Amino acid sequence: MNEQILIQSLQELATLKPGNKITMKTGRLTVDTRANGVSRWLSGDSRTNTVIVLASLVDQAIATHNRAITSLLQNSLQGIENLKVTYQKDYGICMQLEEICAKIKGLPHLL
Q: Which of 59, 83, 87, 93 is the most buried (most CB within 10 A)?
């Protein structure tokens, strides 16, 4: 993922509200506006894939060692917290999202 797409994806992640879901259909992370769970499933946008995409996005952002991107990571925490609200009935997904949050919070330059 190039740096511009990474930045756009992190910015979009920061805007997530409770109840929102995400997709990577456009090549970058965006809010999924489809109301139908079947269409999400058919396109591969499952909860499990959401966590995989987020973990990869965070890992790539951390690997850049770019202060601006690291700042965007911090801003994205609320969006990830809102995803936990979206998937609150799925304990496994919530725990994986919490691990992603912990990784971001554990970055020394964000303390």
A: 83
Q: Which residues have C-beta within 8 Å of that of residue 28, sequence separation ≥ 6?
A: 1, 5, 8, 9, 12
Backbone phi, psi, residue 107, to 5°: -65, 125
pLDDT of residue 111: 39
Tokens read off for 98: 């919490």
Domain boundary assignment for the chain:
3-106
Contact 78, 86 (CB under 8 A): no
Q: How confident is the model at residue 35 (pLDDT cuts 50, 70, 90)?
A: low
Which residues share a beta bridge with 31?
22
- Tell whether the torsion through CA atoms of 34, 37, 41 and 45 is positive or negative: positive
Identity at 47, one-letter amino acid code: R
* Main-chain phi, psi angles of 66, to 5 degrees: -105, 125
